[in-house]
Amino acid sequence: MNEKSIHKDAEHFISISEKEGIETVWNRLKSQEPHCGYCELGLSCRNCAMGPCRIDPFGDGPQKGVCGASRDTIVARNLLLTISAGAAAHSDHGRDILETFYETSNEKTSGYMIKDVEKLKKLAIEFGINVNDRNDGDIARELGAKLMEEFGTKQKRLTLLDRSPKKRQEIWERLNIVPRGIDRENVESLHRIHMGVDNDYLNLLLHSLRTSLSDGWGGSMIATELSDILFGRPEPLVSSVNIGVLKENEVNIALHGHNPILSDVIVQAAEDPELIKIAKEKGAKGINLVGICCTGNELLMRKGVPMVGNHLMQELVIMSGVLDAMIVDYQCIMPSVVDVAKCFHTKIISTFDKAKFEGAEHISFDKSRGIEIGKKIVRLAVENFENRIPGKVDIPDKPVEMMAGFSVESILELLGGSLDPLVDAIKIGKIRGVAADVGCNNPKIKHDYGHTYITKCLIENDILVLVTGCAAVANGKIGYMNMDAVKYAGKGLKEVCESLKIPPVLHVGSCVDNSRLLVLVSAIANNLGVDISDLPVVGTAPEWYSQKAVSIATYFVASGVDVVLGIPPAIFGSQKVVDVLTNGLKDLVKATFSVEPSPDKAARLIQKKIEDKRMLLGLSYREIG
């Protein structure tokens, strides 16, 4: 059997699934192969009923759709649709957080409160709100109303763009890609791809940049800021990761998805003495919460809740036989978890009306009854404890320690309140640069291999790595996110990490928290008086799969950060689109995309890009072997 994961726990359950005939994501991938070549190249179009259409990549068949759309138009429209879907997902997440924040300020929720007053006031000041001699509720209500305007058409530009360097803002203005409203750009994207609207591939690509910026500097950034205000700003902490965080003698509840609104009250409910008493009456010693994907990352960052796995672990976790409930909200949740759960005793409980799963038990979440509903859900898990099948209990690995909680504010505090120590370390070469390893898992790539291999190569060459989402879990499981990991770092990076008592790989949050990286690189650029594109900073997404990942990668590039992808996007049916994204954007936004499936070559490419940026800044240059 070819190994599908680098991890012992994953391989253990993949082997069992194949022996017992339990279908997993890898089985379904194989059954789909070979994939449609037209779709992989971006050359298929089903936008209207005159089609579906496809362009023959070899030139012998159709070269235009029924409406006359060229290969360049079709590929660009498909890419814009992908980015718009990703931006909409993140931004709708942000809207959910905003609505909870606003209703909390009006005392219409249960289980929520403003936990970071300092950040509330700082954000309010950015939006021109007077905070002097006013109570927190008044400030929050006015801020909530202002933030709602960011989603509509009243604004001429998003307010949080002001955090970016002036040079970057001038580039956006020159290209006319300044996002005007979060929802506005997504709606316009859907309008543009309608037949007979935008048929200029370059114009479509520019709006793709604008739409992604409305995510990074809009919906995602709002989600991050308000989550910190409502649920607490992350601070460095120590927790643990992998399937070993499950406990045979406790009620195990996995929180899966991306939105912390539900999971925050589940944490409160799991601490309820009455529910703990019932759990003990059922034979359990307590209630154990674990996280999957970014809902888990949100809880890990703020509360130290351990992570049981990332995207490709969600089916396998159920096979432990000790997961009493998987509570899901939305995004990155495979419908197949319901089918896998039928082979065990696990309850799958869906909670958001916009994300129902056939066969799951649905409990509609209502913010005004947050604690009440949270307790109801936890009770279902507790009562399911006694339904475990003894012969199926299987926890094959021990937890690995990991550190998390590195918000921009906590990083500044570690540096003594100023970015100068970090900038100085970069200038003298102790830290050669910074790489952001972000994004998902994809079964087309050996599980977590791309993330961890690239990280290893970078930290041993003195490149500080910041991680979010599934990439963070990957690096945590392999042991790169605790103090023991400094032994893998190069001499300069090791010295910095030991002095600050941090690992060489820093967990900065969930997928929406990639916006923290925008804030951080902007602050560094402003400190140096340069543009983001001048910095020795690179982003990489070696195992991405989702539309959200494409939006993230695009807003990084549009903000001036080169991005190296491991999975080819569906653009190679148009040489013109490929040329713009891999070369032309360098002239337009001073950053570009690269595609490199080989983790070894990708790591070298990232190092080369960082060293080239150092050379242009007049800093020491290191040859890449």
- How many distinct beta strands? 16
Distance between the termini: 34 Å
> What percentage of amino acids are in beta strands?
5-15%
* Poorly predicted regions: none
Q: Percentage of helical residues? A: 40-55%
Net shape:
globular
Top CATH class of the largest domain: Alpha Beta
- Please identify, by name, the CATH architecture of the largest domain: 3-Layer(aba) Sandwich
Physical arrangement of strands within the biggest beta sheet = 6-5-4-7-8-9
How would you characterize this protein structure?
This protein is of the alpha/beta class and 625 residues long. The chain has three domains: 71-231, Up-down Bundle (Substrate Binding Domain Of Dnak, Chain:A, Domain 2), CATH 1.20.1270; 243-392, Rossmann fold; 400-616, Rossmann fold (3-Layer(aba) Sandwich). It has 24 helices and 16 strands. It has helices at residues 8-20, 25-32, 37-41, 71-105, 117-126, 136-151, 166-175, 182-192, 201-231, 260-270, 273-281, 293-303, 314-318, 336-341, 370-384, 408-414, 420-428, 449-459, 469-478, 491-500, 514-528, 547-558, 575-589, 599-616, and strands spanning 44-45, 53-54, 237-241, 251-257, 287-292, 307-309, 323-328, 347-350, 361-362, 400-404, 433-437, 463-468, 505-509, 537-541, 562-565, 593-595. The chain has a six-stranded parallel sheet. It has a six-stranded parallel sheet with strand order 13-12-11-14-15-16, with helices on both faces. Strands 1-2 form a two-stranded antiparallel ribbon. Helix 18 links the parallel strand 11 (433-437) and strand 12 (463-468). Helix 4 packs antiparallel against helix 6, helix 5 runs antiparallel to helix 9 and helix 18 (449-459) crosses helix 19. It is globular and about 65 Å long. It starts with 7 loop residues before the first helix and ends in a 9-residue tail after the last helix. The mean pLDDT is 97.
